[in-house]
Write a structure and sequence with these properties.
CATH architecture of the largest domain: 3-Layer(aba) Sandwich
CATH class of the largest domain: Alpha Beta
Strand order of the largest sheet: 5-6-9
Number of strands: 13
CATH topology of the largest domain: Rossmann fold
Shape: elongated
Strand content: 5-15%
CATH superfamily of the largest domain: HUPs
Helix content: 40-55%
Radius of gyration: 32 Å
Structural class: mainly alpha
Number of domains: 4
Oligomer: single chain
Largest sheet: 3 strands, antiparallel
């Protein structure tokens, strides 16, 4: 069996999204597992919507994910590499014209001069009769003289492919045997518009045949297109490739994931701090299973195991919580220096957005790694986790500052006592977590306070938040002087707080 040739053929009419990324990944993994070739081809015939910026995004995000290809363009607007170029459809128009002329000459297609008004009237009549829409065949049997007469009138014909009667059967590598009656294809379909522009069904088959694709691995939403494509492969005299249709990606409510309803752009997940190792790992498990209990696998490990036999037929639910868990697992695997480097852009973004006042240096971040690495679900969560460390003038909400079971006076007394305990018991040199906890616990016990209430009041006073890394680690990270200064400021805030009569 020859080495497989597979492809991904995105349209640069939008950013790379989850569905296309997963399809690209499955094709990449299949090629790598079986010693094959992975091709990237750009379907850019939608000139009105295709942009160089979207092309750049698609290529950049695939590179960021670690998904590389053997043939195709490496950069937006850049040169192609590979023996079957060009790999952009707008540079292949002559090939489509040649293939169209061939099927026309062989009477496997014919010019259709029906006007939009005629086609609309046909559709409405079929709707009124409760029949599925299909082309009525008005132009299917025009003589050469009748065609010439219409051309003389200035009419330009679209090219329609003749759909033969019968059933199309194929063995889908995911779904098993599929059979579709050609009567359900809507009649003869247009492959070239009247202005000479080729349509998707035609271009994709011409390109897949010319580039010698052996396997077409794509989303289940293309399943209904496959009979048309098989007919076109046969009409053009090419070997029909094997097909594998991947399950749809679904929202948690099992509706289809779409760009309109869901967050789908890979760039958005990247901007939130998901790392490529985790996103690739998650996408691989979105409709495929390892057949074992193992879940955390690198791209190379996935490439060593991937097969189509374990791709599921049913829809794959996109679970963001699961993705965050997996992302956290991968963050914990990073070495300290790698983590620090990856966090820098997110800290700079927090600074630029005014959420923190300064960006810590790698030297300042290094001692924090044990605290943050076990708690980060995404790199973008760094500001929410420990951003309080890099705020110069922390403002504290008085409502949050007073624990639920306490009032203003109790909180004020607690913070004053805590300040004194820190000042008296812990010096600048011994300001460590294991030195801080005992005197503060002893204070709570002596005053009859719940330790949790005291610790919450201190936490909010020095961080402005109710949820942070462990309190004593947070105090150590702040340092003795800043801890005392923030306690002073919180005490002053409570002193100026109006107490209800």
């Amino acid at each position: 069996m020859p080495a497989p040739r597979v492809r991904i053929a995105p349209s640069p009419t939008g950013p790379l999204h989850i569905g296309t990324a997963r399809t690209a990944l499955f094709n990449y993994l299949y090629a790598r597992r079986n010693g094959g070739t992975f091709v990237l081809r750009l379907e850019d015939t939608d000139v009105a919507r295709s942009t160089l910026a979207f092309e750049a995004d698609i290529l950049e995000q695939l590179h960021w994910l670690g998904i590389t290809w053997d043939e195709g363009p490496d950069a937006a607007g850049g040169e192609d590499r590979g023996p079957f170029g060009p790999y952009r459809q707008m540079q292949r128009l002559e090939r489509y014209a040649e293939a169209a002329a061939r099927v026309l000459a062989e009477d496997k297609a014919y010019p259709c001069y029906c006007t939009p008004e005629e086609l609309d009237a046909d559709r409405k009549a079929q709707e009124a009769a409760h029949k599925p829409p299909r082309y009525v065949g008005r132009c299917a049997n025009l003589t050469l003289e009748e065609r010439a007469a219409r051309e003389t009138e200035g009419k330009r014909g679209a090219l329609r492919f003749r759909v033969p009667a019968g059933k199309i059967r194929f063995d889908d590598l995911v779904r098993g045997e599929v059979e579709i009656d050609t009567a359900n294809l809507g009649g003869d379909f247009v492959i070239v518009r009247s202005d000479g522009t080729p349509l998707y069904h035609f271009t994709v088959v011409v390109d897949d045949a010319a580039m010698e694709m052996t396997h077409i691995i794509r989303g289940e939403d293309h399943l209904s297109n496959t009979p048309k494509h098989i007919l076109l492969f046969q009409a053009l005299g090419h070997t029909v490739p094997a097909f594998a249709h991947l399950p749809l990606i679904l929202n948690p409510d099992r509706t289809k994931m779409s760009k309109r309803k869901s967050q789908t752009a890979i760039a958005d997940y990247r901007a939130q701090g998901f790392i490529p190792e985790a996103l690739v790992n998650y996408l691989a498990l979105l409709g495929w299973s390892t057949g074992t209990e193992e879940e955390i696998l690198s791209l190379d490990e996935l490439a060593g195991r991937f097969d189509l036999e374990h791709v599921q037929k049913g829809g794959a639910v996109f679970d963001r919580e699961r993705l965050e868990w997996l992302n956290g697992q991968w963050i914990r695997r990073l070495d300290a220096e790698d983590l620090i480097e990856r966090l820098q852009p997110f800290l700079e973004a927090d600074r630029d957005a005014g959420r923190i006042d300064l960006v810590p240096s790698p030297e300042e971040l290094r001692p924090l790694v044990p605290i943050i690495q076990e708690r980060l679900p995404t790199l973008g969560a760094i500001g929410d986790l420990v951003g309080f460390l890099w705020i110069e003038d922390l403002s504290v909400d008085t409502v949050t500052l007073v624990p639920k079971r306490w009032d203003r006076d109790t909180t004020l007394a607690a913070l004053r006592a805590a300040r004194e305990a820190i000042l008296e018991s812990i010096g600048p040199v011994t300001f460590e977590a294991d030195e801080l906890e005992p005197p503060l616990r002893a204070l709570a016990e002596a005053r009859g306070w719940k330790a949790g209430d005291l610790f919450m009041a201190i936490r909010v006073a020095v961080t402005g938040r109710t949820a942070t890394p462990p309190l004593f680690d947070s105090l150590v990270a702040l340092g003795r002087e800043r801890t005392l200064a923030r306690l002073d400021r919180a005490i002053a805030t409570l002193e100026g707080m109006e107490v209800p009569a």
